[in-house]
Structures are given as structure tokens and as C-alpha cells.
Amino acid sequence: MTTHVAVPAHAKLNLWLRVLAREESGYHSIETLFHRIELHDDVSVTLVDEGERRVSCSADVGPERDNLAYRAGELYCDSVGWDTGFHVEITKRIPAGGGLGGGSADAAATLLGLNSMAPAPLSESGLRAIGARLGADIPFLLSDSPCALAWGRGDRMLKLPALPQMHVALVVPPFGISTAEAYRLADVGAERTGCQLSMDDLTSWDRLIEIAGNDLARSPAASAHEQLAGAVEALREAGAVLADMTGSGSVLFGIFSREPDVAALERTTGWPVVHTRTSLNVEATTRLD
């Protein structure tokens, strides 16, 4: 029986994001195009006989029991009636709280790791149902697809092939934006509907550039930070074919056909910049014993 696995936890971009409706429960219905990027955390999951459950992280991301990976592990074991202990170790590379889905990616990796070792593993749909209870990004990050169109609360999803690989520059401001506040202040019209899309729209950078946009980047929660608009413009002036905020922010991304000049972007924006690329596939869980 496998007792120790490694799972890469890749960050995601929202190449576009539309807020369609605010439900009575307070949740928001969205439409978004997710795409994984090569930037990732390393997550290892080890089963522990004595029943102790722990999550450790190379970065300070708050109390252990508030960590989304810890909550994912607890929820998985409770859902399948498994009393195992586990240790989750996270080597953090994805900037926290920036809209890149780092915490969600770690949670998804924890679910995948536990499921790969469980006596009676869940189907993909069963695993996705657990993930959806934890966050709208997690069902996508549990999938075996590098790209997907998602709507509702992120649990309804059309898997798509990877777009042609491009370089990505991530501009990382020194402040975050509250996800709850960004959604609360988003302009949600009563007649808002999703985009009318074809498969050509979803598989071509040229077409995506024409229809891209992030409603949360236009939310007062984001527009209150005037520097963000200037950083987006700096990405475009540096040659980005598409530049916007990802998720509820505050990280900004630029899509480039060739490797961008990171040092020049850091001088222009005044903020750290991370270079990565869009992902072409999803790496499998690796046995370590």
C-alpha cells in the first residue's frame, strides 16, 4: 500500500471572469476560463498510523487548522469515513492571497494525494463534489485538464485542451484584495448573461484577446488601488498580448509570445515580477515509497 506521494500544485489564471449573479445565499454565479501555469507549490502527503493530522508550510500562511489543505484533508477523511492520520508538507512558491489559486491548488493536491492512497478511492465527480465545498477554484484544480471553461460556482466545467504555450509575467503587489469584498462590490446586473462562445473562441489566443476581461478588476475593491491600472498598462507596453488581474487579485498577469524582461518590468511597476509559462498538461501524482 502506498503511504507517501508527491503532487505538484499548479497555480491558475482566470483568462476572463464574469460575475453573472448574486444568489440569495450570498454566493456568486460566475463564468470563467481557467488556465494552469507552470508555477507551482510542491505538496507531499504521508499517511500516519497513529492518526495525527498535520500540515506544514515553508511560508507563514496563518494557523495550521485554517489552512485550506488541512481543511481539505479533514473533509476528505470525514466524507469517506477514513480514520487515517496524515502529514501534508507544502513548499510554497505561489504568492499567497493574490488570485492565483495557491491555497486552492494545495487543497486540491491534498485531496488528490489522499484519494490516490485511499482503500476505496472516489471517482473524479465524487472528489470534485468535496472540492466544491471548499472553493470555486478547486474543482478545476482537481481535474486532469490544463484549461477549462467553468460556470456556476466553478463546479460546472467544460474541459479544454491547453492553449498554445505562452510566456507569463506575474506582477505581485505588496497588498492583497479581499475576495469577499471584491465580489460584494462587483457590479452584477439583473440581466447579466454569459458570453456566446464557440470552440474557436476557446482555443485561440487571438480570439480570447478580443473577449477577455475580469469583472473583479473593475470592482471598487480593486479600482481603489490606482497603481494596479498603471501596472497593467506597463505589461501591455512591454509587449503583453493580454494583461489583466487574475481572480479577485491583486496579482496581475501579462501573456507574452516571447520571454519578457523581468528586470525592466520590476523597475517600471516597482513590484516583484515572476516569470513562468502556461501549462501544456497536468502532471500525475508520484509515489515516493
Give start-end ranges of low-pLDDT stretches. Answer: none
Rg, alpha carbons: 19 Å
CATH class of the largest domain: Alpha Beta
Tertiary shape: globular
| Succession of helices and strands | EEEHEHHHEEEHHHHHEEHEE
Average pLDDT value? Answer: 92
> How many strands in all?
11
List keywords for this structure.
four-stranded antiparallel β-sheet, 29% helix, Ribosomal Protein S5, domain 2, globular, seven-stranded mixed β-sheet, 289 residues, Alpha-Beta Plaits, alpha+beta
Short description:
Helices cover 29% and strands 29% of the residues.
How does this structure look, described?
There is one protein chain. By secondary structure, the protein is of the alpha+beta class. The protein has two domains: 4-160, 2-Layer Sandwich (Ribosomal Protein S5, domain 2), CATH 3.30.230.10; 167-277, Alpha-Beta Plaits. The chain is 29% helix and 29% strand. The protein has helices at 68-80, 102-117, 124-132, 138-142, 179-185, 199-202, 205-211, 220-223, 227-237, 262-269, and strands at 4-22, 28-48, 53-57, 85-91, 147-152, 156-160, 167-171, 242-245, 252-256, 273-277, 286-287. The relative contact order is 0.19.
List the SSEs and their pairings.
Blueprint: E1 4-22, E2 28-48, E3 53-57, H1 68-80, E4 85-91, H2 102-117, H3 124-132, H4 138-142, E5 147-152, E6 156-160, E7 167-171, H5 179-185, H6 199-202, H7 205-211, H8 220-223, H9 227-237, E8 242-245, E9 252-256, H10 262-269, E10 273-277, E11 286-287
Parallel strand pairs: 3-4
Antiparallel strand pairs: 1-2, 1-11, 2-4, 2-5, 5-6, 7-9, 7-10, 8-9
